[in-house]
Amino acid sequence: MGLAKTEEFTLEQNELAAMAKALGHPARIAILQFLIRKQSCICGDIVEELPLSQSTVSQHLMELKRVGLIQGSISGPRICYCIDPKAWLRLKQSLTNLLDSFQDPACC
Amino acid sequence: MGLAKTEEFTLEQNELAAMAKALGHPARIAILQFLIRKQSCICGDIVEELPLSQSTVSQHLMELKRVGLIQGSISGPRICYCIDPKAWLRLKQSLTNLLDSFQDPACC
DNA sequence: AACCTTTATCGTAATATTACGATAAAGGAT
DNA sequence: ATCCTTTATCGTAATATTACGATAAAGGTT
Fold first, then answer.
1. B78 contacts B42 by C-beta, under 8 angstroms
2. H or E element in which residue B73 lies
């Protein structure tokens, strides 16, 4: 098979997993960190910053955009990317919710 | 190609990405939530809980173990799994570090 | 219109992930 | 010793991801 059985899990589990999956590549972590540092920037700036080709960076950007973590606005021939504040907050909340629900008990 | 260029990124970026990737599947989110709820439990309990075959659950457990998020201890013929508190804390810190570094500025 | 810049998309190849059944391995129980 | 239970691993098939170069598309500039 190879197709994740998403329909068997809750919406929350799927959403969190999708976001986490989007964070699951060092290039995308680097892109997000760069966007945070720069507030917003042109796609080309990211391509310059990363050790990857333009097409690969574009794919990573699409991946981040697909789950809603970033948004791009057209500005002439270039596209300005930035983090979507609402999606970022939602990610933060559901991650915090998961991470804080574990309270360091003795292990088995 | 198809092989992630991990060597081009920092250790921190790679570590966080690896952890996030491990969270990037609803079944693994469900496993972690179950482990948190139960504190610790037998592999078989997880298999019962999830809508996946025993072998698939075992693979997901191996994935979580590979990045260190959970640990298993042998107890007779069964294996008791639980969350690794230290790894959990590290994950929490590096995620919080990333998530908190973004301060809702105006987008482009 | 012809050109340049910028970014997305296509095509392709390599690798990784996901899932399952079947089998092996490890350890108790009879 | 022979079983039964429990979990890992193997084998396999389908799908997804990653990366790149090449090309297309979109929008300025001359």
1. yes
2. strand B70-75
β B70-75/B40-42 pair status: unpaired
In a domain, A54, yes or no: yes
* Chain-chain contact of B29 with A85 (C-beta, under 8 angstroms): no
Listing DSSP states for B4-52 in one string gives --GGGS-HHHHHHHHHHHHH-SHHHHHHHHHHHHHSEEEHHHHHHHSSS
The alpha carbon dihedral of B11, B14, B17, B22 has a sign of negative
How many domains are there within chain A?
A: 1
Task: Name the nucleotide with the smallest C1'–CA separation from B56.
Answer: C19
Mutate to test the interface with B, among A10, A29, A39 (most CBs of B within 10 A): A29
Q: pLDDT (tens digit, 9 = 90+) per residue, B53-107?
A: 999 999 999 999 999 999 999 988 999 999 999 999 999 999 999 999 999 877 7
Q: Do B107 and A84 touch (CB under 8 A)?
A: yes
- Mind listing the pLDDT tens digit for each residue in A79-96? 999 999 999 999 999 999
Report d(CA B96, CA B88) in Å as an integer. 12
CATH number of the domain bearing residue A15: 1.10.10.10
